[in-house]
Amino acid sequence: MFNRLFRLSSYTAALLVLVILAGIFGVLYYYARDAIHDFGFWHFITTSTWEVGEDDEGGVFGGLIPILGTLFSTGIAMLFAVPIAMGIAVFLTEIATEKLKAPVGIAIELLAAIPSIIYGMWGLFYFGPMLQRLFGGQSNSLLTAGLVLGIMVIPFMAAISRDAINTTPAVLKESAYAMGATRFEVVKDVIFPYAKRGIIGSMVLSLGRALGETMAVAFVIGGVFRFPHSLTQPTISIPVLLANNFAEAGDLELSAMFYMALILFGISFITITIAKFFFLKDQK
Amino acid sequence: MNATQRRRLLLNRAILILSTVAAVIGLVFLFWILTTLLIKGLDSIHWRIFTHDLVEKGLRNLIVGQMILAGVASLIGVPLGLLAGIYLREYGLNSAFARFIRNLSDVMMSAPSIVIGVFIYGILVAPVGGFNGWAGSVALAIMMIPIVVSTTDSMLSLVPQELREAGIALGASKAQVILTIVLKAAKIGLVTGILLAFARVVGETAPLLFTSANNDYFTLNMNQQFPSLTVSIYQLATFPDKPSQDLAWAGSVILTALVLLINLTTRYIFRKRKSK
């Protein structure tokens, strides 16, 4: 009796994962249906106006600017983070002396655990103003947001890549060295092909984090509904739009916000699913 | 040495230097952040912020509130995550259903935290008519579940099959084997997984913004808006006056210290087990 009950409850808990995910899609769709009905899909994602109508009733809402803001800031973050995180991973596994490996490795892992709001505050008070002095434009901008996001995912990406690289059998590396390969050739032709899956996996997980990140971006992207004509101008991303305007939104605007959340969830869901299907499918 | 060899060695040198430079750049940024946090934070910390609430420019109610939000989230999320993880490893194993749920759980782990906040707003705030502490805790619990599922799944996979067989041979039921043998054998791994999940959600802001929102006053009543350290940091940091910003830095350093302390503790527990 207890045996069956235990099995049933653990089965229910596992099923709950599916129920929650389906629930998220369902609830977001339910609240977004007015906006979906009024603006459609193509029209919504290609419209760049976000204006509340007279007396807070109705209005015209389009998601183009926050969608672009999300994609651009994530793109900048990845362009910045991938080379540096790979450098750190290679440094930690192939270049650093044994004495350096442990402390630097632990430091990287601890930095990956720091709440993202800390990165945002640092960007607001220190990094943004510095970028402004260097490149002009505004302190809170698409560039600041992208770079802060990149800095935030670097430790995470580096730690996972390092673990993947560490799984390369020493025998493989030693045989390449014995053939006279240089260290770079070993990294390029032995380690990367062997650890490819884990390394790409680390990039995809970081991409997922950057896409949905709110707090690191909210402080530094500016939060204005405007298309940035240069990197140093402010704009807005989907999570930041939600964080700033959700609580005060009127009826139709709130529905449009749920629509935005649905689109963000869709983008992140599709990215992770595709990545799992192509790169991570043989993992246990 | 011929030209090809020289080119190979030169390329090797260049790449190794570039890689070291990349590592140094990354580390410089990260230590810049940490030192700023330490200097600004320690500068702003005074005893009075631990004894006063936000309404009197203190952090007491916020720290207590944040711990309660994450604590209640653990009470909801940990048992569910453990049970689901147990199902995946002990019952489902490699069945199509278990593999499907495993994948979904990974996808759920990457779900944007703000989307979870919006979802909870839809089911626990809008129908009730106001922000409340429970909504915040449930949002955090949803973030914890996939983390606990994944660590439980992999920790239980490290328990030797012979232990389970020995239990079955003694006439124990499957539930007894799991509860008294398998979970016991995996205890330390499970505890560290739970602690890491707690550390992950205790520093979250986005899922709380429009679920539990914030409260300037001390409260233990989760039916009303609930004080949150992270949400307050977000609000205080964007105020133009220096005392508010200082309070935000003080909150940040306390939050970071807490998260890093949990991480170092789990590392210590794990190392101790290995050395035994």
UniProtKB/TrEMBL annotation, chain B:
Gene3D superfamilies: MetI-like (1.10.3720.10). The keyword Transport applies. PROSITE patterns: ABC_TM1 (PS50928). Keywords: Cell membrane, Membrane, Phosphate transport, Transmembrane, Transmembrane helix, Transport. Residues 63-266 form the ABC transmembrane type-1 domain. It is found in: Cell membrane. One of its GO terms (biological process) is phosphate ion transmembrane transport. GO terms for molecular function: phosphate transmembrane transporter activity. It is a multi-pass membrane protein. The chain crosses the membrane at residues 15-42, 62-88, 109-128, 134-156, 177-199, 247-270. GO terms for cellular component: plasma membrane. Belongs to the binding-protein-dependent transport system permease family. CysTW subfamily. NCBIfam families: 3a0107s02c. This is Phosphate transport system permease protein PstA. The lineage of its organism: Bacteria, Pseudomonadati, Campylobacterota, Epsilonproteobacteria, Campylobacterales.
